[in-house]
Specification:
The chain has 285 residues and is mainly alpha-helical. It is built from ten helices and five strands, in the order H-E-E-H-E-H-E-H-H-E-H-H-H-H-H. The strands form two sheets. A three-stranded antiparallel sheet has the order 4-1-5. Strands 2-3 form a two-stranded antiparallel sheet.
């Protein structure tokens, strides 16, 4: 099991850090506590050091990267790493470079404006302003980082240690069991993703008065396109469901589903049929 999985996938870890632009003001927290006769630990006053609009685009770039990372990978149990199937490696690495470039561009723009932002904060914070709260210009870029680490999946065959034979076999068995559970959890995650988008469509289309966005359809299209690259085991049940979803739920565009009652009812019924068929699959996944 472990060698088979290691041949088909790897581990990828996304680490993003950024300056929070907030600071706990101990002095103000103490003054507030004394004013209201309470313990200082009952509340904290946190200063917003920089106008949040100035750093907002960095947060948006981070959020977009993390969403992509989770969509394109599968769950693993160790230190934030996730399973990246080999079939999805090229697409993932190409796109994550784009997300990194966007993040770093937003950081550069922020740093270019950093001195002016500090002066704005000096005026807006007034008596709460403390220059010691702000890292020097040459240090601020160290507060931001975007790193992607790719490592091979561990296998029982990699285990080498000077122990008695029985102990080595026990530990190797534990590794095999853990990898087997990880593979099962990863496949279950795929069935659950498909189930969630189909269920969402069924619920929206069943309500004649419900207003929905184009993403009701485009999210399904994106998942249908992605699943073949994430199907670690080549599970024919998942592929059958994927094809069924593509054939029966993507025949009409969002506007057709809004305006054409027949299209809406037909697609809603198809979604419910697929959910009924999926129940057994998800339980078995």
């Amino acid at each position: 099991m472990s060698q088979n999985l290691a041949d088909k996938a790897m581990l990828v870890k996304l680490s993003i850090s950024k300056w929070s632009a907030r600071k706990h003001d101990k002095k103000v927290s103490k003054e507030v506590a004394q004013k209201y006769g309470t313990d200082q630990e009952r509340g904290r006053y946190n200063k917003v050091l920089i106008a949040q609009e100035a750093i907002k685009k960095i947060g948006q770039a981070e959020s977009a990267a993390r969403t992509f990372h989770y969509d394109q990978t599968l769950p693993w149990k160790d230190d934030g790493a996730r399973i990246l199937p080999s079939a999805n490696y090229l697409h993932y690495t190409q796109e994550i470079r784009r997300f990194k470039a966007d993040f770093e561009a937003q950081v550069r723009a922020f740093i270019a404006n950093y001195p002016d932002l500090i002066e704005d904060a000096r005026r807006e914070l007034n008596g709460l302003f403390d220059p010691a709260d702000y890292p020097d210009l040459w240090k601020i870029d160290k507060k931001f980082a975007f790193e992607v680490e790719v490592d091979p999946l561990p296998t029982a065959a990699d285990f080498r240690v000077n122990l008695q034979g029985e102990e080595v076999n026990r530990i190797k068995g534990e590794i095999e069991d853990r990898l087997g559970r990880a593979q099962a959890d990863a496949m279950k995650d795929l069935f659950n993703r498909l189930h969630d988008v189909v269920k969402h469509m069924a619920e929206k289309l069943a309500d004649k008065s419900a207003i929905f966005r184009d993403t009701l359809v485009t999210n399904i299209q994106e998942l249908v396109d992605l699943l073949p690259r994430l199907n670690l085991t080549g599970d024919p049940r998942l592929e059958e469901l994927r094809r069924d979803v593509a054939d029966r739920l993507l025949g009409y565009g969002p506007e057709d589903l809004r305006k054409n009652q027949f299209a809406r009812q037909e697609t809603a019924q198809a979604a419910n049929d697929i959910l009924a068929a999926m129940a057994g699959y998800t339980n078995a996944a």
